[in-house]
Amino acid sequence: MNRYTWRTGTLEGVLCVAALLFLFPVYILVNMAFRDPSDLKSPISPTLEPTWRNFVEAWAQAGLGGAIVNSIIVTVISVTLLVVLAAMAAYPLARITARWSSAMFYLFMVGLLLPFQLGLIPLYRLMRELGLLGGLVPLVIIYVGMRLPFSVFLYVQFLRQVPIDYEEAASLDGANRFQTFFRVVFPLVRPVTGTVVILNGLFVWNDFLIPLLYLSGTGNQTIPVAIYSFVGEFSTQWELVFASLLIGALPVVVAFFFIQKSLIQGLASGVKG
């Protein structure tokens, strides 16, 4: 048996302090979300008379119902396209040893280096000329284009660690390339798929700049843009902001509980060298 030493106690103490530091913003968030607007005490002071009125007003004033639906639609479609396209693109890049394969891989990696801000104005003009402004389609197109290089990188690095024996066995059984990919390879990359889903899903769900630009002046909005409506030039309704943040975080928390196993497996093995 391992003995409990002073080093173990010190490590536990450090971890407890770190946990408290991470939980402190969550405490402020929950504390302020349930606080009555007339209560002007410090955010650190506990709320003695919590109220649900902030959530009701936030839901009604910011139109959070429609914003959540829009965020779910954009996130689900974008992440689904990213998983399918990135996995299919990464498969030949990881398996084919020709020179063009290596060149194409590095071409994808260039997308990780180019800042998105360089294309803000040209992309906006293009979407305007196509008549797509104000809808959810340009958001999906831009998110897929932005996050595809990163997703391809994760899949390629993972596929290079997967033995090719399974694919050879499927080929001997008469499977073609597409059948081999969807029936053999794609299930094998499930761990890194969890990583791709989580990282891209959080990015799309929490992004503020792109929906603000492409949905401005329309009835469509996503969660971050809806929450921003409570922030004014001269005054900010902080209790409604915090209540909206809790409402907006709820779908992500629910989704996390369903895919946490894949997330842990992906983080442990999906991004290895």
SSE layout and pairing:
Blueprint: H1 6-33, H2 53-62, H3 64-95, H4 99-113, H5 120-129, H6 137-159, H7 165-172, H8 177-188, H9 190-206, H10 209-214, H11 223-228, H12 238-270
Helix pairs in contact: 1-12, 2-12, 3-4, 3-6, 3-9, 4-6, 6-9, 7-8, 9-12
Quick recap of the structure?
It is built from twelve helices and no strands. It has 273 residues and is mainly alpha-helical.
> Separation of termini?
34 Å
**Helix percentage:** over 70%
What's the CATH class of the largest domain, please?
A: Mainly Alpha
Write down how many β-strands occur, each being a DSSP E stretch of 2 or more residues: 0
CATH second-level architecture of the largest domain: Orthogonal Bundle
Number of domains: 2
CATH fold node name of the largest domain:
MetI-like fold
Query: Major beta sheet, specifics?
Result: none
Class computed from helices, strands and strand pairing? mainly alpha
Q: What is the overall number of helices?
A: 12
Poorly predicted runs: none
Q: Could you say which overall geometry the principal axes of the C-alpha atoms support?
A: globular
Your description of this structure?
- With 273 residues, the protein is mainly α.
- It has 2 domains: 1-51; 55-270, MetI-like (MetI-like fold, Orthogonal Bundle), CATH 1.10.3720.
- The protein is 73% helix and 0% strand.
- Helix 3 (64-95) runs parallel beside helix 6 and helix 9 packs antiparallel against helix 12.
- The protein is globular.
- 27% of the residues are buried.
- The model has no long low-confidence stretch (mean pLDDT 84).
